[in-house]
Batch of 2 targets.
Target 1
Amino acid sequence: MPPAASPEPLRPAHEGRLAANILYFGRLLRAAGLTVGPGVMLDAVTAVEVAGVGTRQDLYWTLHAVFVKRHEDHDLFDAVFARFWRRRAPAEKLMELLSPVAVPRAPEPPKPGQRRVEEAFWGISRPPEVEEQQVSLDARLTASDQDVLRTRDFAQMSAEELREARRRIAALRLPQDTIRTRRLIADPRGARPDFRASLRASLATGGALLPLKRRGPRERPTPVVALLDISGSMADYARPVLHFLHALATRRRVDTFLFGTRLTNVTRALRHRDADAALTEVSRLVPDWSGGTRIATSLRAFNKDWSRRVLAQTPIVLLVTDGLERDADETLAQEMGRLQRSCLRLVWLNPLLRYSGFEPRARGIRAMLPYVDDFRPVHDLASLEALVAALAAPPVPFAGRKLLVAGEE
Amino acid sequence: MPDRASFPPPSIDATQTLLTGAGYVPDRALATVLHLALRMGRPLLLEGEAGVGKTEVARTLARALGRRLIRLQCYEGLDLAGAAYEWNYPAQMIAIRLAEAAGESDKAEIASGVFSERYLQRRPLLEALMPDPAGPPVLLIDELDRTDEAFEAFLLEVLSDFQISIPELGTVKAEHPPIIILTSNRTREIHDALKRRCLYHWVDYPSAERELEILRARLPQVPQALSRQVVAFVQALRREDLFKVPGVAETLDWAAALVELDAVAVDPALAQDTLGVLLKYQDDIARTDAAAISRLLDEARHAAGRIA
């Protein structure tokens, strides 16, 4: 890279403290949870060299351009930037602050996401006297201690139970349903001729023969979007269902959202290969485990922020909740309707269905029922097996869905 | 064709001036990231809601630099043949037959003759790698989120090495890398591997001041007072709890619509009648009833004076 012809002549960034500071800054961001690889670090130094260090704002957006790769990361970046570049501490001092992070095999305590910035600065095994200061610092960011306790509770579920559930869920034969994509692949029985392959095959014979090759649409497993209620009344069922979703995600695209009082996307966390690690990560992300539930608000949040992003590939939506919503009003029905219209099939899994005499009396349940394509129990392994069988059944066309709903009412 | 601006622009300010001169009003953040993308020769991924002006960045850049704009509109099922290149099969077959008729029998020779540049049809990606007398073109890969992961994987080679491998022909590499702008509406998450190769910027809804500047730059025929009202109303509308809030494109449409209707000021009836220009979901339109509109207009009236 030639030296930048910037109007404000500056020392190249790789000399002096600036480069070192950028590297520390990058490490802080990484510790705070951003994906910062060595390539990005190099980019950052180059970028600052190219842009020249003008105002603080320019430095901010220059580093932002390089480090932030997801809109969601903006706030973390903002927080780290504000603390780091305000501080103007010498690099060595920062290194000192950082060093506890590098202590090998330090037992990692469960920490809610909002604390990550603070922890990136203070390290994990911070001295007790800093602890007090810490409380005053991050009061505005931290989830309540009760949430932490709840999270811990989940992480400590009995190993026996976990092993058994995992073994049996892993042994489930997963559904073989597929949907057609618009991408074409080589297919001897496909409907479309594949000229390119034909011509290549023809050349093998010097052009004497022209064997007709064909292409057809590629099929792939139907994506699944799961909306899982983790309120207090659902606590016993959320865990096995999460295991099920984790197993399902090994074969197909699964987007998982948890909701209690608010909606959390845990898709990335659940992608961890090891189920235990995945579930630990999930519990870490969710502050309102075993709290109350606000179905309408959560569905609205999903429809507004996520539906366009995860429902674009016409997935099956699994809504796992008991539907016990106190403040059920017309918005619940409205959001359910919108959800159903934007997916292939809306399946409601309700553990209350385990009672043989179950009747949909609760207002919430009555408001939601007209908009589901399938209403089934989810309280034991047998019901999970039945779910698998139902998922493998061919999708119901949209017109058919309407009729089904009319029949129920 | 406009005068060739100096490339790459020497500073962030110069980048900002370059775009403003061509009718796009960028904020400092966008100017910075664009400046970096141009200086570092890296693709730029722009994400943001529909209608905030992501595509327009590429268009303006091409216009301002006097470069060719090559646009690849993404769609589901887009493959190599549609995006990079395709062979001209009928011509190839005729060539084979002619070779046969001429008595050629060397398979390798026929193959190399048939799979040569002559029979190659270039699609946008390959086209963008070709040398251009006006300078490397601006390659716009629009709405990347509409393709599937398989296509993204293919793009990786283009984005980091500015080259495309054609099995029958070899690797085509750009002598001077094109300026690449990718846009995404986030109907799907873009893979990390692709993001890593790009600089990233989230294009947000503009502030009232910037939106007014945009309106002035794009639609100078709209009276000042009306522009102010339009911007203030749209800004107030964006604070409402809507399923899809209007973008800049909708603001421009609405201002143009009001001028068509010979309006000099926004009144409740007019706003009600033209709401479909701003809001595209029935639920949102139903929610924005007469009472809401008069409340929004009140807010807008107070705010309009404050916009510089």
Target 2
Amino acid sequence: MQRMIFPFAAIVGQETVKRALLIAVVNPKAGGVLVVGEKGTAKSTLVRSLAEITGEARLIELPLNATEDMVFGGLDMQYALEQGKRRFLPGILARANNQLLYIDEINLLRQEFLGSLLDAAATGVYRVEREGISCLQAAACTLIGTMNPEEGTLSPQMIDRFGLYAAVSREKNETDRMEIMRRILAYEARPAEFCRQYAAANEAVKQQVAIARSLLQAIVVPEAMILLAAQMCAKAHSPGHRAELFLLEAARAIAALAGRTYLLPADLEEAACYVLPQRMRQEEQPLPPEPPEQNEPEPPGEEPPEQPDNQPPPEPPASQQEREQPAEQPVPPAGQPESQGSDQEKVADIDTTFPFIRMALALPQDRQERRGSGKRSLTRTDTKQGRYVRSGIPHGQVTDLAFDATLRAAAPYQKFRNTAQCAIAIEREDLRQKIREKRIGSTFLFVVDASGSMGARERMRAVKGAVCAMLQDAYQQRDQVGLIAFRRQTAEVLLPITRSVDLAQKCLRHLPTGGKTPLAEGLTAALKVLAFRRQKDREMKPVLVLVTDGRANTTATGGDGMADALKVAGKIHKTGVHSVVIDTESDFVKLGLARTVAREMGSAYYSLRELSEHNIMHIVKNLS
Amino acid sequence: MQHNAVYPFTAIVGQEDMKLALILNVINPLLGGVLIKGEKGTAKSTAVRALADLLPAMEVSTGCPFHCDPADVSRLCDSCRGRSEEQTLPVQSVKMRVVELPVSATEDRVVGTLDIEHAIKQGEKKFDPGILAQANRNILYVDEINLLDDHVVDVLLDAAAMGVNTVEREGVSYSHPARFVLVGTMNPEEGDIRPQLLDRFGLSVAVAGENRPECRVEVIKRRLGYEQDPAAFGRQHQEEQAKLAADIMQASRLLPHVTIKDELLLLVAKLAIALDVDGHRADITVIKTAMTLAAFDGREAVEPEDVKKAARLALPHRMRRRPFEDGTLDWDKVEAVLAQP
């Protein structure tokens, strides 16, 4: 299908993205571009408009629904039918050889799949081993990925594969916004005429690219420039040597775009804006199980004050800071009276500076867990609901026939089979089953201590911040969440388990603190919610997240609060529910009661402080 | 579906915003659809299904599974493009339709898949169009859209973004036009809708049950009347229905002639900046909605009042910028900006 495309030259503003795209188009060695920005900022329009100005190169799009054999290639069914021989039918990746490969919503692709894709693009070749075919395919393509970070981010390793990084943001200037509206209205009313109006301007960009491409070979990188690049990268603490190479290649493209055949330091400086920001942040990212040092996946300037600030302040383009950060930080109310254990009620606000917490689920009996980081919700599915990713040989009954794969399996044998009835004779051994994947959210039940002791010293603010940070992760992973709060004499199910993470956050915001600590009640309520939930959904593997200082001092039965709490904790342990205890105790003299509860419940244990420094919560951690 | 088996659109009591939003989308399919939020039993689905009756006829290329518009050469499917190069495409007039996407739909059904029968009989690959093919140039209706599986949502977003459905699966590489008016309903209590999907909806309206007793009585009366004798009930509303259908037709014809002054564009740009909305869809939608409102009112010039009305339909769901930001539309702010000289 041919499409009318909004002209590149007609796009208002977005100069950095345009520039990054041009650099990538002029010099494939610059490593492609990752375009990041909020929705509705013309990301896709920009990339698609590129098709017209790249001359001979085409823009190949990778749709989200692509199955693996379509991407990497597979057996040519038609040929096999006719000749009875196997032949490789190239996939999208092969089509993209020496072209631009565009992946929209790149952060929504399966990690392992994206990994192989990026590998292929980086090395320029990939090995095919499927359906009895073994061959080497060329796949040297310039990757262009776009993503909206609010749907989840890419891992730093994935981001690192892209040479260039560009952030888009909305126009903030009235006249520009007006012009955008004018042009879109004009385009939608008469697309062909609109395109004609911009034909000359578009042609000029096309010429610039063509000339730059022809100049590129002549641009030699002098020794001094290599040294400068090395210095820049060292200063930015960028790991490996990809950065230097990308930096120099991008600089060559910049010089070529300017019509020069020599490099200027300014070219390198401009290139650095696209090559270095995403790599600076990488320095700060530790490997998950390592002791905490510096672990901010977020841009700087938002760390909680207690964190050591030992990394050099990177200077990413301003737009980079816009990623998933709340705009303003509420100022903590000054001079709040201490009211430890008092009956006075108050509502703490949410500490929005609390770092993002990734809840790493490594449920031992689950084999899917090796499917990689952060994808806790990705699972194979035997229902017909998931996304069809590949096919396999069925074990037992075929419930979900992969017809395409079955045909391909049967094709080479047709010459020897009786095909009197139909064009194709299929036998039992040809049958293939669809393998589908579905993102299944986990279920997190938060049980939050809202007693008076939690209200003290801004602690509840931090607690809310932490729970909110976990909810953010839950949103990105499409988890279900529930919220129970306990204070005074009772526990209250504020939110039964629901998919609406949003509601959970609202409940949390309005949650007041005050009164005693009926921990046993809180845990009992959790048991009930989980039991009820299990009746509805047997497959569910819920995780209980208890946030408390463990100072149980009351119970409905009038008995010993702590003893009762431990009893229920033991019960929870027996049900096999995975749990985490987040200890909020921060007093000078530590009673360590929450740790006792955690032990009894068989939970992973974290202190609030530890959590704010780690950013990662391993749900299953052997305590004993 | 039988003509009189559907509850007449004009017989729906109240819910004026919802009705208006739906009508505007019929007049101008480029508005981007509407999200209807509300509790159960607030006539959301009834209204959408009732809309079918009012939909205008359109010219399609005869026999095309995607109902290509022969007049729009830039958006023809491969087959129509091929045919159009040899001859003038035969044209047929059909009614625009409401195509339903069930929440349980599998991805294969949505995007289309390999035609199994053809493969067995002929030993050739052929594309079997799915729901997105049916939806081209029609209304795609997803009841309880917030319960839709994520991967189906992704596919929908993919198609909605470009007006094209690109299929790379089951041995078939195919792409076909898929421009549709997306109408979704949801009960917010049952779960979130992803901001990315939310932003795709041009307009949003919140519906609530009628609170005035006299209205509730009227709702019940009409419902009973309809159930007792749908045909007779339909006849009672025939005149109103015909008038509304004619108004919609008239407005569609007028729409291309509607113009908007620069000062109103500037006002909308100011509004978007003041409200700090994500991206640019908000301003563009406000403008297009205002133009459609003017057309529906029989005018060729957009007035400030149109912009105000449009802001109410196009902005509320865009205030919620991130999964956790509460975001309600600060109407005072809107009025303050709009009141600027």
